[in-house]
Amino acid sequence: MEEFLTAQFWVAVGQIIMIDILLGGDNAVVIALACRQLPPKLRTKGILWGTAGAIVLRVILIAFALTLLQLPFLKLVGAALLLWIGVKLLVPEDDEHSSIQGSDKLWAAVKTVIIADLVMSVDNVIAIAGVATGAGAQHQMPLVIFGLLVSIPIIVWGSQLVLKLMDRFPLIITAGGMLLGWIAGTMAHTDPAVTDWLPQTSAWNYGLGVAGALGVFLVGSLLKNQARQNGTTSPD
Question: Which of 53, 153, 196, 204 has a Cα-to-Cα distance from 162 of 20 to 30 A?
Answer without folding.
Answer: 53
